[in-house]
Amino acid sequence: MPKYTLKVLTDFASAHTLRDYPGDCARLHGHNWKVEAEVEASQLDALGMAVDFKTIKGLAREIAGQLDHQYLNDLEPFRDLNPTAENIAAWFFHEMTARLDAPHVRVSAITLWETERACVRYSEDQSKDSAL
């Protein structure tokens, strides 16, 4: 079965503190985050597209906009969940999954860059998913 992987990049700036962290990151600090949103499709539409890049970019920007210029610890779900890069990436993945409404397309991974040299990639095992 064919598989098409599409990626878009967006960014946001925010601040956070890591609760109970034994180091400097327990203090208030900020990042200029980059988000790489990856979607997979198994089919193309009549135009020969899996899903319009404009659709993916719009969703990624909309979700990133919820975090942009915010103190993450004040936002749901990060009031209780530590706003680590891992937790932010997982949250972004689930937000995008809930909003992506395209047949035969699914979010496959979110890569969240905390700095130019450090990132986390979040995905979920879809081996049982035959919807594509």
Automatic annotation (TrEMBL):
Gene3D superfamilies with a match to the protein in the record: 6-pyruvoyl tetrahydropterin synthase/QueD
Pathway the protein contributes to: Purine metabolism; 7-cyano-7-deazaguanine biosynthesis
Q: Which positions are annotated as binding Zn(2+)?
A: 16, 29, 31
Protein's UniProt keywords contain Heme: no
Q: InterPro entries from the xrefs?
A: 6-PTP_synth/QueD, 6-PTP_synth/QueD_sf
Q: How is the cofactor bound?
A: Binds 1 zinc ion per subunit.
Per the record, the domain of life is Bacteria
Question: What keywords sit in the KW lines?
Answer: Lyase, Metal-binding, Queuosine biosynthesis, Zinc
Which molecular function terms from Gene Ontology are attached?
6-carboxytetrahydropterin synthase activity; metal ion binding
Q: Where is the active site?
A: 25 (proton acceptor), 69 (charge relay system), 114 (charge relay system)
- An annotated GO BP: tRNA queuosine(34) biosynthetic process
- This enzyme's EC code(s): 4.-.-.-
For this protein, what reaction is catalysed?
A: 7,8-dihydroneopterin 3'-triphosphate + H2O = 6-carboxy-5,6,7,8-tetrahydropterin + triphosphate + acetaldehyde + 2 H(+)
- Cofactor dependency: Zn(2+)
UniProt lists the family membership as follows: Belongs to the PTPS family. QueD subfamily.
Put simply, this protein is called: 6-carboxy-5,6,7,8-tetrahydropterin synthase
UniProt organism field: Ectothiorhodospira marina
